[in-house]
Amino acid sequence: MKLELKGITKKFGTLVANDHIDLMVEPGKVHTLLGENGAGKSTLMNVLYGLYQPTEGQILVDGKPVSFGGPGDAMAAGIGMVHQHFMLVPVFTVAENIALGNEATKAGGLLNLDETRAKIRRISDEYGFDVDPDALVEDLPVGVQQRAEIIKALVRDAEVLILDEPTAVLTPKETDELLAIMRQLKADGKAIVFISHKLREVKAVSDIITVIRRGKVVGDADPDAPAAELASLMVGRSVSLALEKAPAQPGEVTFRIKDLTVTAANGQRAVDGVSLQIARGEILAVAGVQGNGQTELTEAILGLQDHVAGSITLDGEELVGRKVKDIINSGVGFVPEDRSVEGLVGAFSVAENLVLNRYDQAPFAKGLAMNPARVAENAAQRIAEFDVRTQSAAAAAGTLSGGNQQKVVMARELSRPLKLFIASQPTRGVDVGSIEFLHRRIVAERDHGTPVMIVSTELDEVLDLADRIAVLYRGRLMGIVPGNTSRDTLGLMMAGMSAEDAETTQTDAAQPDAAGTDSAGGDK
Predict the structure, then answer these.
(1) SS3 assignment, position 103
(2) Biased-composition ranges for Low complexity (predicted)?
(3) DSSP 8-state code for residue 340
(4) How far is Cα of residue 135 from the mean position of the Cα atoms in its chain?
(5) What domains sit in the chain, N to C, each tagged with a CATH number?
(6) Residue 515: per-residue pLDDT
(7) Is beta strand 452-456 parallel, antiparallel or unpaired with respect to 420-424?
(8) CA–CA distance, 116 with 103 (Å, rounded to integer)
(9) Which residues pair with 309 in a beta bridge?
(10) How far is CA 125 from CA 121, 122, 132, 143, 158, in A?
(11) Of 9, 287, 341, 514, which is the most buried if we count CB atoms within 10 A?
(12) How far apart are the C-alpha atoms of 395 and 413, rounded to whole Å?
């Protein structure tokens, strides 16, 4: 099935999310939409899938114009979509989820899951998915849930499959398995639209790359093009992808976590007996798939979690049980994972956001009132230092781009002497150019002698920044390893294997077998 978009424009009020986009998707090819978060990729695919109606333009299937009033129309035309956030009901089985909205019935109107199970097994066998139709979705690993989403589209005879940021929640091993599945689907004649901003994966699987920037197509690129060239197309200027940093010079250990447990509202342990420490002048990166206790760990350090046991000390002083404001005033800088909800007050000015943690302290306060002159002076300094692109310091923070909002949060937290700096998902939703800048600032804070903790689900970011890496899986610490540990070893740890077992597994895999061949079956 050949799919074509002509002049697709989508406006939300005065915001132009897609601006006259042309796109051709052909059978047997992986067509990648590459662009930073907010570039308009997902909006375009939501138009294609019938979730949004285009303001202008048309969609053609096999040369004939079509109009989709909703996802049902798109599915009927042979288009399937796997969303970044899965559309599965956790308490249903795989078969029940796949039948939902497309139910086969027996005589008397009873649900016929046998037919659905048979289709799941056939597709699972054909593509090597290894998905049990009767397994509860909530019991499945994230990678298997994603396969269930793909099966759901294939059961409905999808010929065009849209994958929206499909690797965002996967371990490295699961990512490799997904890329292999994409190649198999391509070989079977399916057309795949792959939405991503991860250059490594894009280059590994794409046949065609279309780059979108600020809602417009800025060009097509060859998958063999250097990563730096692709990054430049995304942001509109040359970008250095290699982070240069000197080896860490760790000093005294001043931050310690011992036997930390955080109990969630449902009674389960979100953090389960974690112990770690960070020295002055080093970066410890906490890695893991999202939802394995990272959020609760950082919130416990900042005093935002209620049910905490164990010990957290900074310069020998216990933090557990103290108020958030006291912890911040003790010298803890904190960049939260969701800047728009927890890091900024969007309606406040940039200048006001830059003093949110010190608005009531000298020199930014005089008695019970703020000191506008000093607040404005501070804003001018930070805007220049962190290259914040804003019309003025008086502009509302919510009007800034994601990257500039993140710079405001980072500038605020790094504009005072710190005893500990924590940044959770420090570059989420940030363009490549801003990532380059923020990474340099994080390393500079380390080199200033501050203990630094980075929490990131982006493995490339972890490997770029970390001096040591701690891996969390279901709230438990799988181990702490050097910053140059291989991606394969980290991937095994992120899937629940201890550091020791992961290293052993990788060592065994690299050893030649008794017949003189390596583990991949090649000649020695």
Answers:
(1) coil
(2) 504-518
(3) I
(4) 27
(5) 3-235 (3.40.50.300), 253-331+417-510 (3.40.50.300)
(6) 47
(7) parallel
(8) 8
(9) 261
(10) 6, 5, 11, 17, 17
(11) 287
(12) 20
Tokens 């027996």 belong to residue? 106
Output the six-digit token pair for 247: 């080896």
CA separation for the pair 265, 276 (Å, rounded):
25
Q: How far is CA 490 from the centre of its chain?
A: 17
Strand residues in 214-307 grouped as ranges (E): 216-221, 253-263, 269-279, 283-287
Is the CB of residue 190 less than 8 Å from the CB of residue 78? no
pLDDT surpasses 50 at 522 = no
In 214-364, beta strands by DSSP E? 216-221, 253-263, 269-279, 283-287, 308-314, 317-318, 332-335
Render pLDDT for 398-450 as a digit per residue (tens, 0 to 9).
Answer: 888 777 888 899 999 998 899 999 999 898 767 677 788 889 999 999 999 99
Helix, coil or strand: residue 361 = coil
User: For the CA atoms of the chain, what is the radius of gyration?
Assistant: 25
Q: Report the DSSP pairing between strands 216-221 and 64-66.
A: unpaired
Handedness of CA 195, 198, 203, 205 (dihedral sign): negative
Bond before 363 cis per omega within 30 degrees:
yes
pLDDT of residue 96 exceeding 50 = yes
Tokens representing 518 are: 């390596």
Among 371-385, 426-440, 501-515, top mean pLDDT goes to: 371-385
**DSSP string across 364-402:** SEETTEE-HHHHHHHHHHHHHHTT---S-TTSBGGGS-H
